[in-house]
Amino acid sequence: MTKAVAIQGIQGSFHHIVAKQYFGDSVLLLECLSFDEAVNSLLNKETDAVVMALENSIAGSIIPNYALIDTHDLHIVGEQYLDIQHHLMALSGQEIQDIKDVYSHPMALLQCKAFFKKHPHIKLIEDKDTAEVAQRIQTQQLKGVAAIASQLAADLFKLEILAKSIQTIQHNETRFVIVKRDNADSSNEATNKASLKFELEHKRGSLATILNVMSDCQLNLTKIQSLPKIETPWKYAFFVDVTFDTYSNFQKALSILEIMAEDFKVLGHYKHAK
């Protein structure tokens, strides 16, 4: 049984919504201001799991989070996709023309750029967390200030939604992963997706060879992300997600990839959420 789950942000954040969906409404949360803080809580055994956003369908990958999982030898044990609906909210009794400043997470601001081009009088200011801004507006009774946050945040902090679903692309989805210290609770039979990390020699065709092995073993590549190795200029680590129909196909691929790739690591195997 999971004793506590760390999230980046506070109640009402999108990470909170995912934690509720994955672990149930009674989940015990540890609210953290950063992903580093959330991971430290896991390493220090204050929590049993971390909910961590990895990529967004509009803004792309959150690369530092790949590095956090890899550096600390953590394991992905599950994933969750969340339809992200950004709402503009403020204290009741105001309209959009009354709003002078909007504070939100940089990712949320990026996803809503087109909306604010229509309201040039509003100043956009980056902040740590979407829900924390909503909470601050209510706690400090800030007028003329709005947050971009979830419906849950509006409900929890009793704010009025001035504009619903203001994200530029209406189908806006974020992939979150559930991260633990080990992969002990993932049974092989129930898994059909895996996250891998490896490095390659800097020579022609090395990546193509690896991808061919995956294809020959009937693995379906769903994601590939390169990350530069800071200590070795122009060398890259690759983070790859694959799906498979049978675990034996995955095992066959592993036996080959472990020989062919440098610093090969399975970051986790789990059930595909799609």
UniProtKB/TrEMBL annotation:
The keyword Lyase appears for this protein: yes
Domain ACT: 195-271
GO molecular function: prephenate dehydratase activity
Ranges of residues in domain Prephenate dehydratase: 4-181
GO cellular component: cytoplasm
Biological process, per Gene Ontology: L-phenylalanine biosynthetic process
EC top class, as a word: lyase
Pathway(s): Amino-acid biosynthesis; L-phenylalanine biosynthesis; phenylpyruvate from prephenate: step 1/1
Catalysed reactions, as listed in the record: prephenate + H(+) = 3-phenylpyruvate + CO2 + H2O
InterPro entries in the cross-refs: ACT-like_dom_sf, ACT_dom, Preph_deHydtase
EC number of the protein: 4.2.1.51
Superkingdom of the organism of origin: Bacteria
Keywords in alphabetical order: Amino-acid biosynthesis, Aromatic amino acid biosynthesis, Lyase, Phenylalanine biosynthesis
Matching PANTHER family: PREPHENATE DEHYDRATASE P PROTEIN, PREPHENATE DEHYDRATASE-RELATED
Record-given protein name: prephenate dehydratase
Organism: Bizionia algoritergicola
Upper classification of the organism: Bacteria, Pseudomonadati, Bacteroidota, Flavobacteriia, Flavobacteriales
